UniProtKB/TrEMBL annotation:
Limits of the Calcineurin-like phosphoesterase domain: 1-107
InterPro entries per the UniProt record, alphabetical: Ap4A_hydrolase, Calcineurin-like_PHP, Metallo-depent_PP-like, Pesterase_MJ0912
Gene3D superfamilies per the UniProt record, alphabetical: 3.60.21.10
Pfam family, one: Metallophos
Protein species of origin: Haloechinothrix salitolerans
Highest classification ranks of the organism: Bacteria, Bacillati, Actinomycetota, Actinomycetes, Pseudonocardiales
Protein name, per record: Metallophosphoesterase family protein
Length: 211
């Protein structure tokens, strides 16, 4: 059985549509959270993820912000994004009962571990096998007998804004294929302009490095 596993769509409808096309025929999906916020299509992305066949969708910190009605972080630009996106979000029912973890074949799937931003070089002692998102970076950490995968971000790659990262797993033998595909991020910026996003938010996307 093959599963497409992805995280951090962040309201980027063109990116998740491109990912789904690239993944092709799979037997199911695992979404690791943060489907909403930042991009202009939080409602549409929540709908699309919920409509996927055999999908397990988890709660990320941005779903939690939307459910609580406030952004709990200290980043000023992130606060501006939240103000714009939360104002038009009307799919709270779709995200209100999402679990925080899912276990399958000896792997724990979650948005992150203990609310940490975990990167490839983060000092961490694995206590089991994990697949996590949250840090918007694609990597693998091997600590035999355990392993951790991060598929990276679909909708807001923090290294190259025009790159979509995700992974495809073969559940029968638990092999993981980390994947990357390009898309046209200018579509997102044009929609932000059309919806009158603050200049600081538009500049955040416009000035990110491209591959």
């Amino acid at each position: 059985m093959r599963l497409a596993i992805f995280s951090d769509v962040h309201g980027n409808l063109p990116a998740i549509e491109r990912m789904l096309t690239d993944a092709g025929a799979v037997d199911g999906y695992i979404c690791l959270g943060d489907t909403v916020n930042y991009g202009p299509w939080s409602n549409e992305c929540a709908d699309l993820v919920a409509s996927l066949p055999n999908v397990v969708s988890l709660r990320g910190n941005h779903e939690e912000y939307f459910l609580q009605g406030r952004y709990f972080g200290n980043h000023s630009i992130a606060r501006e994004f939240f103000s714009v996106c939360y104002e038009t979000f009307d799919r709270l029912d779709a995200i209100s009962n999402l679990p925080s973890t899912y276990t399958l074949n000896g792997f724990v799937f979650s948005h992150t571990i203990k609310d940490q931003y975990i990167f490839a070089d983060t000092p961490i002692s694995l206590e089991c096998n994990y697949v996590i998102g949250h840090s918007h970076r694609q990597f693998k950490i091997s600590q035999p007998p355990f392993i951790l995968y991060n598929p990276g971000s679909v909708g807001q790659n923090r290294q190259y804004i025009n790159v979509i990262n995700y992974l495809v797993a073969d559940i029968d033998d638990m092999t993981f294929d980390l994947r990357s595909v390009l898309y046209d991020e200018r579509v997102v910026i044009r929609e932000m302009l059309r919806r009158h996003y603050p200049d600081t938010c538009i500049s955040y996307y416009a000035k990110r490095p491209r591959l």
